[in-house]
Structures are given as structure tokens and as C-alpha cells.
Amino acid sequence: MTHSKSWNASALWAVVAAFGAYLCMYGFRRPYTAASFEEATFGGTALKTLLVTSQTLGYALSKWVGIKVVSEIKPHQRAWGILGLIGFAQLMLLGLGIVPRPWNFIFLFFNGLPLGMVFGLVQGYLEGRRATEFLMAGLCASFILADGVTKSLGTWLLGQQISEDWMPFVAGLVFVLPLGVFVWMLTRIPPPNAQDIAHRSERTPMTRQDRRQLFARYALGLVGLSVAYLLTTVLRSFRADFAPEIWKDLGFDRTPAIFTTSELYVTLGVTLISSVMVLIHHNRRAFFTSLGLSIGGFGLLLLASWGLGHGLDGYWFMVLVGLGVYIPYVQIHTTVFERLIAMTRDQGNIGYLMYLVDTVGYMGYVLLMFSKNHLAPEGGYLAFYQNFLFVCCFLGIVSLAVSAWFFEKKTS
Question: pTM score, two decimals?
């Protein structure tokens, strides 16, 4: 009984620490998306599109750098790494406020450049444990809910007559002290014990040769997962970055509460689905169950889009789309790679695999942002999103099916 209480307290501590630390990171990344930056352009491109593209490009480059940094970093270096990366990002938000438009878009590139590595550093505290899915579900809940919370904060700050250019920096200041507390909590999480290692395998830093060998061994399956992750990243990021515009097309006013309440339903649903995966002890069974749930997420997206044209309320359309996007997105974060390593017992860590697919995902979103002005239909953001959604769902289901077929043959 004492051991069980100790384990429960340790898991709860880890969830709170990871959830809080990553939610705070969003306070330095997302609040600016609550602003419209209307009537501001640069070279014929809307300033908001330029800002989103600039930050996403920096974030994508960060993921590429993170393939090496996150997979190789030592445990004792993580906390200072998190604080240093976020501190630099906040300085870039100061530049966003000081430098006049439209040239201040450059500072969002440098704001995104360090932030993309924070997730992997926080994730490193949680992987390789019997409760990893539960812990990772808490971490993933943070970036689902944080997107709405930070938009709500940004919208509220704009309502306090803080300018669009200075609002992101002021929002970051709100999160400085909580960030320090949650990072300290991360440092107090004990390492995986002997039972964790026996069930999930030991997680170790990886060399360049280790990374090459792991990819070569599972290339086709990893390519399939990368394609599916790319599609969910694009759908998720567009929904997040242009949420005010999509809500407007659906007939809703831009109010602070709507961003948070809609994401709360998504957070609860996705967290519940991800958490119950910890109850599947057999690693191979959990791996393929996770792939099946991911395919189901794409199916839910199709259902939501069909429903919008057949009487479904716009609010619940956004909730169902959020669920459909985040189910495969979070399953890859929480279960797919965690159980793949546990199932195969390969040397390494999930930081490498996550940053491999993250690089592909965010580079794909950058390309979408560059081409959006040429692809967007006259119907606006909602129409563009719905059309793109159908293509992504078809390709996502096919890529996941190919990946499942490959790993079934490879590991049978």
C-alpha cells in the first residue's frame, strides 16, 4: 500500500511538472496568434501569414537541430537547457515589440528557433516508464489546452489596450515565475526504476551511428508514420494559428472564452484515450492498438466535416475536428514510439524518433504557409481548411495502413 501511494504521488508530481512546464512554454510562443494584424502586408503577403510562417520556419529548423541535441543530451543538462531556450525566445518577443512593422517578423523566426527543442527536453523526464502513456498524456494535454489558454490571454491583453506588437512580450512575462517553479519540479522526478527498465527497456543517449542504424532498420514504417504525422501537424497548426479566422467564418465572435472552452473538451477526450493505453501491458498489442486509434482519428475528421454540411453546430465541428486531429498526433507522442522501442528493445530514445517526424511535419506546414495565398479558395479560411482536410485524411489513412503492415511483418 505504501509503495502504491508513493508511486501515485510520484506520477502525479511528474504529470503536474510536465504539464505546467510545457504550458508555460506556450505562453512564449502562441499568444500572438490571437491578434489579426489586419491591413498589414509585406510584399503582398498578409503580415499575420508572414509572422506565422516565420515562427514556424524557426520552429521547424529547431526540430531538425533537435534530432541531434535532444537525442544526445544528458539528463542533468535538461533543466538549464529549458530555461535558456525559453529565455532567448522571450528576448526575441522584446524585439518584436521594439522593431517597427513589417520587419519585426524576423524576430518570430528567432523566437521559434529555440522553442522547438523544449518538448523533447521535457519528454526526456517521462519516457521509459510503465506509466509513460499516462505521464505523456498529461504533457500532451498541456499543448492542447495551452493553445486555447494563451489565445484567451492574448485576446484579454489586447482588450486592455496593449498593442498587437507588444502583447506577446507582456504575455510571456506572465509565465516567467510559473515556468521556474515547474522546471524545478521536473528536476525532482526520480529516474526510471528497475521494473520500468525491465518492461520498457533502458533509454540512452544516441550517437549519430545509432540514429542511422535505427532509421535504416525501420525505414518504410517510419516514413509512413512521418507522412501521417506531417498531415496531422499541418491540420493541427492551421487550425491553431488561424482559429480566430475559422471561428469567424463559422459565425462566432472572437471572445476569449471560446478558445479555451472548445479546447477543454478536446483535451479531456484525448487525454482519456491516451491514458488508458497504459492499461495495455503487452507492448506489441499497445503499439498496433495505437495505430488503429490514429486511423480512427482521421475517420472522425471526415465525419466532422460531413456533419458541418448536414446541420452540425459550428462549435461542435471545431471540437470534433480537434479530437480527430489530436488523436493520431498525441498517439504518436505518447504511445507509438514509446512502445516501438519497448517492443523491439532497440538502443535509443523516443526523442530522436519524435524529432525526426516533427522536422517533416513542421517543414510541411511551412510549405503550406508559403503556398496558402495561391491555394486558398474565395470561401475563406474555413473552406480552405475543409478542402485540405479531405486530402489529408485519405493520405493519412493510407500511410498509417502501410506503416502497420510493415511493422506487423517486421516484428512478427
Answer: 0.79
